Amino acid sequence: MAEENTRQLKTAIGLENLKGLGDTLKQFKEAKDSLDEVLQTASELAKENSPLGRALARLIEAQGLQALNEGNINVSEEVRKKMAEELTDKTKTIEELEAENKGLKEDKVISEVTSKFTAELDRRLPQPGK
Fold first, then answer.
1. Using only C-alpha atoms, what is the Rg of the chain?
2. Which UniProt keywords apply (predicted)?
3. What's the pLDDT tens digit per position in 31-88?
């Protein structure tokens, strides 16, 4: 029962992470496409060999790289948070399983002692009809 719950929890966490990662990748692709468009425009201006075009191209490229860097930082932070949450969830699951295991071991010991005690009583007490 606990193993099935653990599997379901891992599956749900994995699907949620994949969905979030897919959304993030889609946003990166959109940002990259936009940056490519801007860089193409800037390179066309630079081809004209005008100082203004070259300066504008360098500025746009720097801003694009800065935006991508900030995006990478944000994604890294999100991934770190999700990993921390997963670790916390897995720690809770491990603690629950350890508690359940301890309970099962105690039940097994109680069952064994009861069985031995009953067998000893059966051996010592006279049997009915004898």
1. 33
2. Coiled coil
3. 888 888 877 877 776 666 677 767 777 787 888 778 777 877 888 888 888 888 988 9
25, 116 in Cβ contact below 8 A?
no
User: CA angle, 82 as apex, 78 and 83 as ends, to 5°?
Assistant: 115
Element (H, E) at 19: helix 2-47
Distance separating alpha carbons of residues 34 and 49, to the nearest angstrom: 23
Rounded mean pLDDT, 114-122: 90
Long-range contacts of 6-9 (CB under 8 A, 24+ apart): 6/93, 6/97, 9/89, 9/93
User: What does the longest C-alpha to C-alpha distance in the chain come to?
Assistant: 118
The answer for residues whose C-beta is within 8 angstroms of residue 71's C-beta and 6 or more apart is 27, 28, 31
Q: Which of 33, 28, 58, 32 is nearest to 43 (CA)?
A: 58
Tokens describing residue 32:
């990259």
Rounded CA-CA distance 52/58 in Å is 10
